[in-house]
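Summary of Year 1 activities. Much of the first year was spent building the evaluation harness for sequence design. The harness presents a backbone, in tokenized form, and records the residue chosen at every position. We chose the following record to illustrate the format because it has been used consistently in internal testing since the harness was completed.
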């Protein structure tokens, strides 16, 4: 008789614990906001791109053996299942144009670094915006994948536009 009572009490205990656990998980999933998801997506893309820091520049490259500026962003966004065109001037046709005052982490910065052509030929990913400035990761022919400031004279002069993809 005591054994039956213990088994019944144990059964109720196990059943009640299982149901409260499911309720907690369900509630936490529904309280997430889209802003948090966008921010975490941007953080994940930035972290992926930073994983290429120091990688040498290679025109057309998309691996850690060598990568170009658009290749870096192509693979970083792809890591979060976001498709971008492979070329920077085509990337500049995606998303919404954003004024520099509204730029956030995860936005793209487009540049014209050519003296011969008047077209977008370089792209970077905003990794941080603070009182010290606006910082972006990109792949350069001279230093490979690095983080630069938009306050640097070269980049400030070459800047064309910013776009929000996520």
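For this record, the design step produced the sequence shown next.
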């Amino acid at each position: 008789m005591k054994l039956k009572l213990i088994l019944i009490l144990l059964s109720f205990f196990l059943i009640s614990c299982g149901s409260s656990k499911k309720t907690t998980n369900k509630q936490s999933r529904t309280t997430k906001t889209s802003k948090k998801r966008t921010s975490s997506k941007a953080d994940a893309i930035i972290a992926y791109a930073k994983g290429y820091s120091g990688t040498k520049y290679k025109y057309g490259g998309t691996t850690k053996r060598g990568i170009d500026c658009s290749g870096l962003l192509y693979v970083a966004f792809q890591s979060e299942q976001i498709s971008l065109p492979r070329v920077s001037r085509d990337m500049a046709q995606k998303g919404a144009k954003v004024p520099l005052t509204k730029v956030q982490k995860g936005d793209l910065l487009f540049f014209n670094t050519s003296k011969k052509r008047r077209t977008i030929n370089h792209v970077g990913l905003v990794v941080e915006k603070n009182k010290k400035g606006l910082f972006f990761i990109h792949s350069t022919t001279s230093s490979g994948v690095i983080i630069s400031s938009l306050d640097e004279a070269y980049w400030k002069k070459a800047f064309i536009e910013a776009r929000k993809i996520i």
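Residues 5-33 have pLDDT under 50 and may be disordered. Quantitative recovery figures across the full test set are reported in Table 2.
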